[in-house]
Amino acid sequence: MHTDSPPALFATANGLRLAYDCFGDTAAQPLLLIMGLGTQMIAWDEAFCESLAARGYRVIRFDNRDIGLSTRLDAAGIPDVAKLLGQALVGLPVDASQVPYTLADMADDAIGLLDALGIDSAHIVGASMGGAIAQEIALRHPKRIRTLVSIMATSGAHGLPPPKPEALQVLLTPAPTDRAGYIARQQQVMKVLRAGAYPDEEALDAARATRTYERGLNPAGYARQLAAIIASGSRRERLASVQAPTLVIHGDADPLVPIECGQDVARHVPGARMVTIKDMGHALPRVTWTPIIDAIARHAA
């Protein structure tokens, strides 16, 4: 694992300033990585990005709005996540006007970044919330996406298995904002999300959390992103219109987005293929990189 990132670059996209960086040959086929809820682009580890670039791709990762070094939408205030979640859990539609933005807006951010980089279409790979954003890109901007890879993501449909209680608690408990508290908490969070014993990963968790802390926390942005997920509702019916060749990757031990959620996406996207990673939880430990990078590279080819 690298302890330092290349300095971030910045692009104006969809009216926002997004932090990004690139790996590999600028003439290679572009491949855009989209990260999950409240998670900075550095969670796509440099070595992961470099391995993917070595397979012949120009790999681009970026901070979503409201996270890391990208624009923070503080003027939008903090939505009532508990109320929104309560509505969603009983199957009530959530009025998107109750939230500052939705996943559709975040999909448009990603397309704005491609515009800024002069890229007409790209392979799109998203993890967790990033997978849901990638699905939205395929639905909203079909001409801009060459292939879709949805990793540990859901269709958002009501009635799918919920997160395990310990994973839901992790999702809904605000992280401490002091350095030591944040780092200790992230070590616990990753243990829950990985859903297994990964001593090699656990040895890196404090350093990873420190990097995240030093780039800057945005608890209000986390709440707004979570509200965006809830208010975006189900994509299940719309997935039938996805034209991009689609690969779904999911771990069979995922405590936050159970594997049935990934199976639901694969079932509803025409011609989608599914790769199940044994013992993988809701994280990308290094032991999963080779099968995941192989699957992405083969799919994009």
From TrEMBL:
GO molecular function: triacylglycerol lipase activity
InterPro entries cross-referenced by the UniProt entry: AB_hydrolase, AB_hydrolase_1, AB_hydrolase_fold
Keywords: Hydrolase
Gene3D superfamilies: alpha/beta hydrolase
Gene Ontology BP, a term: glycerolipid catabolic process
Pfam families documented for this protein: Abhydrolase_1 (PF00561)
Domain AB hydrolase-1 residues, every copy: 30-283
Highest taxon of the lineage: Bacteria
Protein's UniProt keywords contain Metal-binding: no
Hydrolase as UniProt keyword: yes
Name assigned to this protein: Alpha/beta fold hydrolase
Record organism: Acidovorax cavernicola
Lineage: Bacteria, Pseudomonadati, Pseudomonadota, Betaproteobacteria, Burkholderiales
